[in-house]
Amino acid sequence: LAFATRLKSVATMAASQEFTGNLKREVEKLFDTSLRITVPDGTSVETEVAASLPGKPGDYQCNNAMGLWSVIKGKGTQFRGPPAVGQAISKNLPASEMVETCSVAGPGFVNLVLSSKWMAKSIEKMLIDGIDTWAPTLPVKRAVVDFSSPNIAKEMHVGHLRSTIIGDTLARMLEYSKVEVLRRNHVGDWGTQFGMLIEYLFEKFPDTESVTETAIGDLQTFYKKSKTKFDEDTDFKEKAQKAVVRLQGGDPIYRKAWAKICEISRTEFAKVYQRLKVELEEKGESFYNPYIANVIGELDSKGLVEESEGARVIFLEGFNIPLMVVKSDGGFNYASTDLTALWYRLNEEKAEWIVYVTDVGQQQHFNMFFKAARKAGWLPESDKTYPRVDHVGFGLVLGDDGKRFRTRSSDVVRLVDLLDEAKTRSKTALIERGKDKEWTPEELDRTAEAVGYGAVKYADLKNNRLTNYTFNFDQMLSDKGNTAVYLLYAHARICSIIRKSGKDIDELKKTEKLALDHPEERALGLHLLRFAETVEEACSNLLPNVLCHYLYDLSERYTSFYSVHQVIGSPEEASRLLLCEATAVVMRKCFHLLGITPVYKI
Ligand code: ARG
What we know:
Elements: H1 2-15, H2 23-38, E1 49-51, E2 60-62, H3 64-72, H4 82-91, E3 99-105, E4 109-114, H5 116-129, E5 142-146, H6 158-176, E6 180-185, H7 193-204, H8 213-216, H9 219-232, H10 234-248, H11 252-276, E7 281-282, H12 289-301, E8 305-308, E9 311-314, E10 323-326, H13 334-347, E11 353-359, H14 363-375, E12 388-394, E13 397-398, H15 415-432, H16 435-438, H17 441-461, E14 469-470, H18 473-476, H19 484-501, H20 505-511, H21 519-529, H22 531-540, H23 544-564, H24 573-593
Parallel strand pairs: 5-6, 5-11, 6-7, 11-12, 13-14
Antiparallel strand pairs: 1-2, 2-4, 3-4, 8-9, 9-10
Helix pairs in contact: 2-4, 3-4, 5-21, 5-24, 7-9, 7-10, 7-11, 9-10, 10-11, 12-13, 13-14, 15-17, 19-24, 21-23, 21-24, 22-23, 23-24
Bound molecules: arginine.
Residues 146, 149-151, 186, 188, 338, 341, 356, 358 line the site of arginine.
């Protein structure tokens, strides 16, 4: 009887199963149910479902039979080996309109073939209700993404560009997944460098009030000059050191000069953010200053802080150096600020997931203060449990010579120039294709910008972030291969097919049916349905390249479909136009998540 009741509740469950967007999860739910019926009470199993590799018999496979067999064999089971367990898993699969067939292969792989009808219906539904209905749901409500974070008056370099691009994408993916994201620019605005900068400013511009950006010129050069003076002139050095104390003590004249320097830097940074269309809220190191003493005091009262060579440090297992939290001169440092910012984000901002995007070179710093925070009981022991912190590290940007990326003219790369060059080059390419004669100057400019900036972003995002990547304009702006240009053009071509058909696509969505009868149509449809699970994976593992890979695959599948099937004028025209539209919708969402502006005409 117990068994019968269980079956009944299972059946009800299957009937009420709504597609939430995450295809893999839906398949998992079916196998979960089947496994609960198949295995004896009390056996705990974790459902193992994976997308099948191309060319394999199913769309998804359940790989539990072998593992389950090794658990239950010899314990009076009715099964005779893994294939029999697989058969039972297959047989116990609840009835669902999602499933076409389910069969067992080899030593017990259970292969599930999805119903093409159901697939088509789900895509139709997405076209009507919008792709946001496919958005993943993550187990957090609020997250902090700490990214970009250049240092005031110092160089904003390609590393900061990578951080800006990767951080923005992660923020976008989390936002799409209904997480409230606090996009934080943790600028370095509180170092000892301000002493010398301020004194130098006083010397060069006694009338500090009226100093403008143009008067100072390049803040980086200003920094270098003040540094030279600091190193060579002992009187100046002394003055600068006193200036730090006066600034940190809150002297209004020094605070004003500091604010001025920050403002000039901010205007510089804003130019990069504007071009990239990246939004960020600045909460720099200085913001946390009023809280530091208390936070370090709390760690001290927990017995974590010890004396070492005049400094105050936290010893951590697994690290051969301690984490310094108070310098020997009594001042605070990068780590004390980061600990305080973490405290603030957890307690004041109530963030459940805090993600830091910097080069891998800073990994040790992050691992150390994360560990200190665990020791203080601010974070759970397990690093996958929420509230959770993650350091998203990335590799270097290299030039063609395989060394750190530099321009010929100077030893630093001005990011604004770099982005402008990408745009200029893409404009030249468009003019070579005669687009200046076809389009208005605004259209040309807009497209050049979308393609140029998109190319820079995509070149950065498509590789696993931990690997170094080579910055090469020719490569990233090529219209062949895995580039933004290729993908943007592919999208534009789909849009142009829809336009050329002369059909009102919104009307078609309401009146026509989508069919996935041919293998290429079905393969494309299946890939579309895997969008949400891909975003979820990219989000959970903080890997934008997963989404890039998906997008590239999508355009490849579209090409396979389009190269063998006629769209306009074929008997299947309406259905195929809907499939084109669904592809374009998913591509646009990918572009959006990658921070790339789509192009509709090419
Ligand atoms: N300003 C630092 C740098 O340029 C990056 C800051 C990253 N964020 C943080 N919370 N530590 O290297």
